[in-house]
Amino acid sequence: MSDRFSSLERWTIDFKQAAALLGIGLRTLQSLYAAGNTPAAIKVGRRTLFRADEFRAWFEAGCVKPREKWEQVWAQKKGAAGK
Fold first, then answer.
1. Residue 48 — φ and ψ, nearest 5°?
2. Rounded Cα gap, residues 7 and 30, in angstroms
3. Tens digits of residue pLDDT in 25-70
4. What is the pTM of this model?
5. In this structure, what DSSP letter does residue 50 have?
6. Residue 32 sits in which domain range?
7. What is the domain count for the chain?
8. CA distance 13 to 69
């Protein structure tokens, strides 16, 4: 991968990496994502990526579902970290 993407790789994880971290199959993760049961992902070209810090926090919080509830929890976590 080129140097201009090296920092992106440190701050993001792809679906394959995320599935491995959770110990589930890629298709299972894709189904969870499609159902709105994971953090939101970002699109970079043809790639769909999770923010690594948010994905880790979501996992540590017990994989909060649905996405809307997680977004509230994440906003509170970010707000508390900024104080």
1. -115, 125
2. 25
3. 999 999 999 999 999 999 989 999 999 999 999 999 999 999 999 9
4. 0.82
5. E
6. 3-81
7. 1
8. 22
